[in-house]
Design brief:
The structure holds two protein chains of two kinds.
Chain A (H helix, E strand, L loop, with lengths): L3 H21 L7 H21 L21 E9 L4 E7 L3 H18 L7 H20 L3 H22 L4 H29 L7 H6 L4 H12 L13 H10 L6 E3 L2 E2 H16 L8 H8 L2 H26 L1 H6 L1 H20 L4 H21 L12 H35 L10 H4 L1 H15 L5 H13 L4 H25 L18 H19 L2 H48 L4 H10 L4 E4 L2 H6 L8 E4 L10
Antiparallel strand pairs in A: 1-2, 3-4, 5-6
Helix pairs in contact in A: 1-2, 1-4, 2-3, 2-4, 3-4, 3-12, 3-16, 4-5, 5-6, 6-10, 6-11, 9-12, 10-12, 11-15, 12-15, 12-16, 14-15, 14-20, 15-16, 15-19, 15-20, 16-18, 16-19, 16-21, 16-22, 18-20, 18-21, 19-20, 19-21
Chain B lengths: L1 H31 L9 H28 L12 H16 L12 E3 L7 H13 L21 E13 L4 E8 L1 H24 L8 E7 L5 E4 L3 H20 L3 H19 L6 H32 L13 H7 L6 H7 L1 H5 L6 H9 L4 H18 L8 H4 L5 H10 L1 H11 L6 H24 L3 H21 L3 H29 L15 H15 L2 E2 L3 E2 L1 H19 L5 H25 L6 H6 L5 H16 L11 H7 L20 H6 L1 H27 L5 H7 L1 H8 L4 H75 L4 H29 L1
Antiparallel strand pairs in B: 1-2, 2-3, 4-5, 6-7
Helix pairs in contact in B: 1-2, 1-6, 2-5, 2-6, 5-6, 5-15, 5-19, 5-24, 6-7, 7-8, 8-10, 8-13, 13-16, 13-17, 15-19, 16-18, 16-19, 17-18, 17-22, 18-19, 18-21, 18-22, 19-20, 19-21, 19-24, 19-25, 20-22, 20-24, 21-22, 21-27, 22-27
Classes of the chains: A mainly alpha, B mainly alpha.
Chain lengths: ~650, ~850
């Protein structure tokens, strides 16, 4: 599936940095400028390739272009990779991954340019950097869970070395901490991945669904052949395909089997994946690798870490956790939201107490990424609002926007810290002051970037934060109030920082004479970040045009699932529990009319026990189990 | 109708232009400021030109508006007769069921003519009594009891410029909501801002230098700070402020209000902290922004309550989508369906279908009314922060650290009035309970700030507390149902308070000190300043000849006191509000004339300062004169026409639907027209306002003018009260103790928890793992390797011992072979037999 041109194009985007890294082998070690320029050229080339995707071409249908206002997967392809384990080389883009892909390719250019200050072992640095870029790009493009996992691990090792070799004084500690945390997440992901793989069964899906999920024709034929066999001879056909897994999770009951402590496969898979991703986000209480990693990492690596790596957590939650394990997501929605809200508050408080500039920015990341987790989790499409998913869509769109915005503002903030650190070689917040007088351009740009972090309207941080916060009200009043209160703390720590660093009569720390104005290169890195911070703040539709259709569709599917599958199931559980209670009660007491009345009132609505949708279409008998589906309630969309 | 449509597209265009001009100026100065002439002098002309352009555009649209719609000054409500009520109910029902009845062709022109009042039955006779009897205000008197359909319709233009977020039914956008109030406030803001821009050119001229000595900022070595001037930055921020303020006024929805709300906040931050080298200035800037954010926290909650239940932020109806006002005023009981449904969430979750009948039942149970109150209180929280109301008033006096033109423009005339403006704009959504809260907050603020102003000696702080106090008046007025009175006072106050601040700036410019005890007798040195300031003092005190004519403050303060009196008659339990309002008028007159006498009258108290004092340049005092003219006569009616400020504002009166409390059923919000039409109330209020102001003036005259009474003696007699007032009721200290320090403490604990608990856990886990691996290493080395080594040692030993056997002697080998063979044979046979025996 997918034309060869697309295969080559996307593969080129992903593997060009790796090829560049391989080519660097042939550069002499002492040609440092050439190495840097070559690496920069590679990152720029990747950036240009990704930008080509949005440039409108003259109506040429065959051209490779990512269309806005389109919800489905675009530019997708599937190629065989390890067929004996149903592993495919599958990639594609949709509104969720595409903005993050652009963020990655653009921030990589800026971070590479910011690496000019690196002096130690340039060649190795650039090679690792480029390999890292391949890993990051691959994660956002992969449509096969196994491929995703491979890229996830590919990204891990270069990062470890980049922190561990080029970092600050405690770099080994920070690097190993980062490595172990992320590896733990990876292991949990691997367990979930295998759980899902071995319980997946493509024979449960109809032909249409298989085709929609980009299952190759060969497999579809195999699935149909399986369908012809008598039921007792049928073998499940497993898959790593993320789209097919999502369809299975939503439309069938293959992941509903109880495995441990009365919880289903879905529930456990969601939990494992969520922990794995939330380590990356990172959220309280698995966040402590972040401050250490940031403090020790060199500036460009901090930019990458905050700007892109953290986004993989949020991306994974939205791409993998919710679509594949909706049942787990529904049951654990409070866990997700509370983790998000706690991170927001906790990160903000911790930031307020920091004395190290970089540590402060790192904790602000924890706080800001808390918005992302909270926004993703506000499962407010329930019966109470007649399964209207719009507020959840708002939250998820806000969360996704917040990821982009945070990618810009946090990368900018780390860069700004790096600029001053390069000059005075310390980060003690109490030993700055008066920088406005010495470095006016720098201070002005930094102020704008910090204001973006503050969530000032007109800058990118505002949109994401406000959309997330607005979405929470219909999920929980209490969490909404907690989320809203963070605006005070954020203002507190950012303004206090600005006051200590940029304002005041004079600089109080060492190396005062080193405070030279920004160089042209530094301005060249900072200005694009500032420009995009303003652009996205003033015209957020620039992002939403690409992002919102996919997000809306994803959430709408989950809302439908809530209406058609989850709610009847909950009602059945409730009524069976209650009938147990009634039985016990009737044994103990005589039934009073009032009790009977109550019982009849609470009885669940009519539940239609039918085959799953897919099976009806497929014309096959149910294989695993039947799913309970209600007669479609006449749930009109509420008039607002 | 043709003409109307033209205006509908033209007015938003003009006001939009007026709004964006300062943004263009900001952008220009931001990019090219330092290159604009020597020391950025041209920046002032860019900014001033932009705001003048805005003023011209605003006046143009104002004139066009008048030409098109005229001024009626008559209440826009429909009456309460049964007929129109039924019509309204029908219309609202039709509307609620079928939003598509809105005509998409008439997007930009919405007339609001109907008023529903479903409390009619519950309200009973009292309400009837209060409401049946209303007449037009001003000259446009007509009998509305039977002329519902001829009643002038409120003209509103609404529209959307572009969306920030859009989904199927939800929309957050940048749009506009323009009525006569918007246009008037535009004119007011741009006029005052223009004056202040001109004034600033003179006031900020010190900044036009490469090396400015800032005597208020000492370096650690005791010398004064020397820095480059920042003339252009000042005008850059002023332009950004004007843009934000106008955006706030034109905003078509409350989310956009919030956006510009924050932006004026950041402008205020930048301008308070303009002298950023001074620690006091940057701290005051932080304080202003953070305290405002506390208010915004509440505002966000209000926004969420609205958004979560109604799914819209728009004030008016845009493109066929009903706005908040329509939803609230046309819903029975003022509770929109969305709020009822959200409040009944549990029951819907339990399976009850939210049909129309069910909604009606829920509405009977007042479900959703709580949400309406949360929304109202939340929005009001934001206003409390921005308008410096108790308990968030603490930032405004500190904000005086900024340059004086900033204090005049932002912290007296416009930004702080934004809170009052929003309360006025959002009036239909405030339920009577919320209005009561607003009234009490306003009353507390007005009293508290007025008392502090009595004791303050810093000339700008007196004015700052006076501002807080006057804003309290406005809130009080709005809270007791005086929509017109509150907004009327907003406009008049903007003029005279800007005037007062600029005069004080002129004084500071001349004396280089803020302390009034060091001044005195300045009227001889700076007559323009002294007498324009006297006009300001008279205006703020509400001076006038009762029932004949007066300064602008006379009319607006009268309106407020009349409405408070009307309210306290309708609700005798809340009579203290009236006492505070009346007493406040006396205190206002007292502290304002105290200020004037201390500064301009008597003998100079510091001859050095007096010697150096001088009148300000023309560019500074001409704006004073302009403002003084407006402070005097802005409330006057243009002879021979209907045109007066009160009538203009009256034309913008929103349609409200709630007059009686639900949770507090005895609460009645009296109709404002009653306070004008009821001669008893009107006369009493006028006389009371006059009497109290006069007594305050006389007291100030005795203390500070003629020095018949000695202020120091009074201070010494009541040292505790004096200390209490000097320390601003200890509110700042209290906040420091109960909010700031605990926050820092929690922050420290959280950071420590991170390091000491979480990281300790992680690190000790790592240590355990390392310990385990060391143990494993030991086992490996001593047990596993030990065993292997042992084996090896044995093998080696055996080998060694066997070496002795290897002698090289052939005979010995043969013997070994023989013995070995025999031994093997014996062994084999033995085993064989054993095996056989076993089987």
């Amino acid at each position: 599936m997918g034309s060869d041109a697309i295969v080559w194009f996307l593969s080129l985007i992903v593997f060009l940095p790796a090829l560049g890294a391989a080519a660097l082998v042939f550069f002499p070690r002492d040609r440092e400028d050439a190495i840097k320029l070559f690496s920069l050229a590679i990152t720029i080339a990747v950036f240009v390739l990704t930008i080509l995707l949005i440039i409108p071409t003259g109506g040429d249908g065959a051209s490779i272009r990512f269309a806005p206002h389109e919800a489905n997967m675009q530019l997708a392809f599937v190629r065989s990779w390890i067929p004996s384990f149903d592993i495919y080389y599958a990639m594609g883009l949709d509104g969720i991954s595409f903005p993050l892909l652009l963020l990655t390719s653009s921030l990589s250019v800026l971070a590479m340019w910011a690496s000019w200050g690196i002096t130690k072992q340039i060649k190795a640095y650039c090679m690792l950097f480029l390999v890292l870029e391949t890993g990051m790009l691959g994660i956002f493009l992969a449509l096969d869970f196994f491929l995703f996992y491979v890229f996830w691990e590919v990204m891990l090792l270069p990062m470890y070395f980049l922190i561990g070799v080029w970092g600050g004084p405690r770099r080994e500690y920070a690097a190993i901490k980062f490595f172990l945390y992320t590896l733990l997440g990876g292991v949990l992901m691997l367990i979930a991945l295998l759980m899902l793989y071995f319980n997946s069964d493509l024979t449960q899906l109809s032909r249409d669904q298989l085709a929609m999920s980009m299952v190759p024709e060969k497999t579809i034929v195999a699935v149909e052949a399986e369908g012809q066999k008598p039921p007792e001879l049928r073998q499940p056909i497993h898959t790593f395909n993320l789209l097919a897994l999502a369809t299975l999770g939503r439309e069938t009951g293959v992941f509903d089997r109880e495995i441990l402590l009365g919880r289903s496969i879905q529930w456990w898979a969601f939990l494992l994946l969520f922990i794995g991703f939330v380590i990356k986000v990172p959220s309280v209480p698995v966040h402590t690798w972040l401050p250490d990693a940031h403090v020790e990492a060199p500036t460009p690596i901090s930019m990458i870490l905050a700007g892109i790596l953290l986004k993989m957590g949020g991306y994974g939650i939205l791409r993998i956790c919710y679509p594949i394990c909706p049942d787990g997501g529904f049951d654990l929605r409070w866990v997700v939201c509370v983790v998000g809200a706690v991170s927001m508050v906790y990160g903000a408080f911790a930031a307020l107490a920091q004395k190290d500039f970089k540590r402060l920015v790192a904790y602000s990341s924890v706080s800001h990424m808390g918005y992302v987790v909270l926004g993703l989790g506000v499962w407010s499409a329930t019966q109470g609002n007649l399964f209207n998913p719009e507020y959840w869509q708002l939250g998820v769109n806000g969360a996704m926007f917040q990821m982009i915005a945070h990618g810009i503002s946090s990368a900018g903030m780390f860069f700004m810290v790096g600029v001053i650190y390069d000059r005075v070689h310390h980060r003690n917040l109490n030993e700055f002051g008066g920088l406005f007088a010495k470095m006016p351009v720098y201070s002005g740009l930094a102020t704008i970037i910090f204001f973006a972090g503050l969530g000032l309207p007109g800058l990118c941080g505002f949109i994401g934060e406000v959309l997330v916060v607005l979405s929470v009200w219909n999920f929980s009043y209490a969490l909404a109030v907690v989320a809203a209160s963070v605006v005070i703390l954020t203002a507190g720590y950012i303004l206090w920082t600005l006051q200590r660093v940029y304002l005041g009569p004079e600089y109080k720390g060492p190396h005062a004479d080193a405070l030279k104005p920004m160089t042209a290169r530094e301005i060249g890195i900072a200005v694009p970040l500032v420009v995009f911070a303003i652009l996205f703040g003033v015209y957020p539709q620039a992002v939403f045009n690409y992002m919102a259709p996919t997000v809306d569709q994803t959430i709408e599917q989950l809302a439908e699932w809530t209406r058609d599958v989850k709610t009847p199931r909950l009602q059945q559980e409730q009524s069976s529990e209650e009938s147990d209670v009634e039985k016990t009660a009737s044994r103990l007491f005589k039934n009073t009319p009032a009790e009977l009345d109550r019982a009849s009132h609470r009885a669940a609505p009519v539940v239609d026990v039918r085959q799953p949708r897919s099976l009806q279409r497929h014309g096959a008998a149910p294989l695993v189990e039947t799913t309970l589906r209600p007669i479609k309630a006449g749930a009109a969309s509420p008039d607002i | 109708m043709e003409q109307v449509d033209q205006l509908a597209s033209l007015v938003p265009l003009l006001l939009g232009g007026a709004w964006l001009l300062p943004l263009a100026s900001f952008t220009l100065i931001f990019l090219f400021g330092p290159k604009m002439g020597r020391h950025g002098r041209l920046a002032a002309y860019v900014a001033t030109g932009a705001i003048l352009g805005s003023f011209v555009l605003s006046i143009t649209s104002f004139t066009m508006w008048l030409a098109q719609h005229g001024v009626t000054g008559a209440p826009t409500h429909a009456s309460h007769d049964a007929e129109s009520q039924q019509a309204a109910a029908e219309k609202s029902r039709a509307f609620l069921l079928e939003p598509s009845t809105f005509d998409p062709a008439a997007n930009h022109f919405t007339s609001v003519a109907y008023r529903t009042d479903d409390h009619h039955e519950e309200a009973g006779d009292d309400a009837d009594h209060l409401q049946n009897d209303h007449h037009g205000h001003g000259t446009g008197t007509s009998d509305h009891g039977h002329a519902a359909h001829q009643a002038p319709e409120k003209v509103v233009y609404t529209g959307s410029w572009y969306p920030l977020y859009r989904s199927k039914t939800l929309l957050i956008d940048i749009g506009y909501y323009i009525d006569i109030l918007t246009v008037s406030i535009f004119c007011m803001v741009t006029l005052i801002a223009s004056c202040i821009h001109f004034y600033s050119i003179g006031y900020m001229h010190e900044e036009l230098t490469d090396e400015l000595v800032d005597n208020e900022c000492k370096l650690p070595d005791g010398t004064s700070l020397r820095r480059r001037g920042r003339f252009h930055r000042f005008f850059q921020y002023l332009s950004l402020f004007c843009f934000s303020m106008l955006g706030l006024v034109i905003a078509g929805n409350v989310a956009m209000v919030f956006v510009f709300w924050e932006l004026v906040g950041i402008c205020s931050y930048l301008l308070i902290g303009f002298y950023r080298e001074r620690h006091s200035a940057s701290t005051a800037a932080n304080k202003a922004f953070i305290v405002n954010r506390v208010g915004d926290f509440g505002m966000i909650i209000g926004l969420m309550a609205l958004w979560g239940s109604l799914g819209t932020f728009a004030f008016g109806d845009v493109d066929g989508r009903p706005g908040v006002f329509t939803l609230v005023t046309q819903a029975p009981g003022g509770i929109p369906n969305g709020m009822v449904r959200l409040a009944a969430y549990d029951q819907i979750e339990a399976g009850v279908q939210p049909t129309d009948e069910q909604l009606a039942i829920w509405r009977e149970q007042h479900l959703g009314y709580g949400l309406l109150i949360v929304a109202g209180l939340g929005i009001f929280c934001g206003c409390v922060g921005k308008s410096a109301q108790f308990p968030l008033h603490v930032w405004l006096p500190d904000a005086m650290e900024g340059p004086t033109p900033v204090s005049a423009l932002i912290h007296a005339a416009t930004m702080v009035a934004a809170g009052v403006y929003l309360v006025g704009r959002f009036y239909p959504v405030f339920s009577p309970e919320v209005l009561l809260v607003i009234a009490y907050i306003g009353a507390i603020t007005l009293f508290l700030a007025a008392t502090i102003a009595i004791a303050a000696t810093d000339i700008k702080r007196v004015l700052a507390y006076s501002t807080v106090s006057q804003l309290g008046y406005m809130m009080l007025a709005l809270g007791v149902g005086g929509w017109l009175a509150g907004l009327f006072h907003l406009v008049t106050h903007a003029f005279f308070k800007a005037l007062l601040f600029l005069c004080s700036g002129s004084v500071i410019h001349a004396c280089h000190t803020n302390e009034m005890p060091l001044m005195g007798g300045l009227r001889k040195k700076m007559p323009w300043t002294a007498y324009t300031m006297l006009v300001g003092c008279l205006a703020i005190s509400g001076a006038g000849i009762p029932f004949v004519i007066g300064f602008s403050g006379y009319y607006s303060k009268d309106a407020i006191i009349a409405q408070v009196l009307s309210f306290s008659r309708a609700n005798p339990a809340h009579a203290p509000l009236y006492w505070v309002a009346a007493g406040g008028a006396a205190i206002t007159a007292f502290y304002m004339f105290r200020l004037w006498f201390m500064t301009f009258a008597g003998k100079p108290r510091d001859t050095h300062i007096y010697e150096h004092a001088h009148e300000s340049p023309k560019v500074m005092y001409v704006p004073l004169v302009i403002l003084a003219i407006f402070a005097t006569g802005v409330a006057w009616r243009v002879p021979g026409t209907n045109l007066s400020l009160a009538n203009l504002i009256e034309d913008g009166r929103p349609v409200t639907s709630m007059t009686d409390g639900v949770f507090w059923s005895s609460l009645r919000i009296p109709n404002e027209h009653l306070s004008h039409s009821d001669v008893g109330i009107h006369t009493t209020a006028t006389l009371v306002a006059f009497g109290t102001a006069l007594s305050g003036f006389l007291l100030a005259l005795l203390f500070y003018g003629t020095r018949t009474l000695n202020a120091e003696e009074v201070q010494q007699q009541f040292p505790r009260i004096h200390r209490f007032l000097i320390n601003r009721w200890y509110i700042d200290d209290l906040y420091w103790a109960i909010f700031v320090r605990p926050t820092h403490f929690i922050a420290q604990r959280v950071a420590a928890f991170d390091r000491q608990r979480i990281d300790w856990f992680i690190d000790s886990t790592a240590r355990w793992v390392r310990g385990l691996s060391r143990l494993d290493d030991l086992i490996d080395r001593y047990v596993v390797d030990g065993f292997v080594n042992l084996l090896a040692t044995w093998t080696y030993g055996i080998g060694l011992s066997l070496r002795r056997v290897q002698t090289g002697r052939l005979r010995q080998y043969v013997m070994f072979i023989a013995v070995g063979t025999v031994a093997l044979f014996v062994l084999a046979s033995f085993l064989w037999s054993y095996a056989m025996a076993g089987s």
